[in-house]
Amino acid sequence: MRTLAILGSTGSIGTSTLDVVRAHPDRLSVVALAAGRNRDLLKTQCETFRPRCVSVGSQEDAQWLRAQLSYQPELHWGPEGLLACALHADADTVVAAIVGSAGLASTEAALRAGRRVCVANKESLVVGGALMHEAALAGSGELLPVDSEHAALHQLLDGRDPASVREVRITASGGPFRDWPLSRIQAATVQEALNHPTWKMGPKITIDSATLMNKGLEVIEASVLFGLTADQVAVTVHPQSQVHAMVGFHDGSYQLQVCANDMKLPIQYCLLYPDKQPGPVAPYPWEAARTWTFEAPDPERFPCLGLAFEALREGGTAPALLNAANEVAVAAFLQGRLGFWDIQACNRETLSRLPAQPLCSLDQVLDADRAARRHAEGWVQTRA
Ligand SMILES: NC(=O)c1ccc[n+]([C@@H]2O[C@H](COP(=O)([O-])OP(=O)(O)OC[C@H]3O[C@@H](n4cnc5c(N)ncnc54)[C@H](OP(=O)(O)O)[C@@H]3O)[C@@H](O)[C@H]2O)c1
Question: Do residues 84 and 96 both lie within one domain?
Fold first, then answer.
């Protein structure tokens, strides 16, 4: 039986994780749940799964939960609450599904404490990749990627001699603006950007899919996870989102990973690894006629992808600077304070203005994150 701490249980990945738990009552149980502000959903989840440890964003919401729940779990709040859940002695597996750099410290702590950590929080890997590996090594923790492309690569590369691999390719749906001309993309509204054609996700990652920054972050994530150079990671646009990743070998051949575009599959892959069991997603329906298409991404209409490659090549804290600027820019876009095209401009300006440092510690990464946020926020204000 795997015992889970789910950080970000009220989000898109968190609720899908609980669906996977429901499908495997004999293999998976919930020890800890942590969320931010959605106390009503957290309360319902607590009543259903009865976790021993619960954390919420604020002390006030923790008190509200204590009064509302029909049983008395350990109740925590804030960043310390996340750590209490991540490090709970009864949890052997942590699902890191907080959005943004708020998920960094708990992911690192769980790896250092020797847990299996199923990482959806790609920011942890993008921003502090080498540090996450170091933490896993120091504590014998196990890092498994939940992102569908990286779970696909993990399956394709499992047991492979790294020397046989020439490149990996992750696929991108292309987002809602794949076919749009540049002038229309530049004037895109929040509603248009949130209208993702193939994936149902939280708002931040949905905007990142529209700019292709999500794919850029995933390029960095792939490089970190599998020890690949920037030249060994490529992106192919595949609007149907059924092929998730490909590995190209030195002999010129490729292997592809195919499954439905449902995050419950990669989540289950990580939770039950190395076992493959029937779960909540039906086997791929090969009988239905279908057409798959593949195309190259357009760097002019989707410049955020190129910025991510730049940050990866620069290394050190450059990915942290880019990620932080992007979080500020996306939040400002969602609040109506920036236009869609300003997101790439804010990211480019922050990356070019702030110098990257070699990566040494989590504190240093968090300093770079704060500096980039300050800079990006200042830039946003000049646009208002
Ligand atoms: N959704 C996907 O299909 C998908 C696929 C691959 C990777 N990912 C990655 O997975 C992560 C989660 O994505 P998502 O789409 O599930 O996001 P989401 O739906 O926005 O959910 C985010 C979760 O994090 C919690 N949270 C946010 N800030 C917090 C804080 N400071 N303290 C405690 N909890 C906090 C939220 O709690 P409240 O809602 O209660 O405030 C919510 O439970 C992201 O890094 C994303 O890039 C997502």
Answer: yes
Residue 375 has which token pair?
Answer: 């800079």
Confidence (pLDDT) at 251? 96
Question: Same structural domain for residues 300 and 347?
Answer: no
pLDDT, tens digit, 9 for 90 and up, residues 70-116: 999 999 999 999 999 999 999 999 999 998 888 999 999 999 999 99
* Closest residue by Cα to residue 145 from 244, 292, 284: 244
Pocket lined around ligand 1, Cβ cut-off 6 Å: 8-14, 34-38, 57, 82, 97-99, 102, 120-123, 147, 199, 201-202, 205, 263
Confidence (pLDDT) at 138: 95
Last residue of one domain, picked from the residues 89, 121, 146? 146
Helix pair 264-272, 148-157: axis angle to 10 deg = 50
By residue range, what is the domain housing residue 360? 315-384
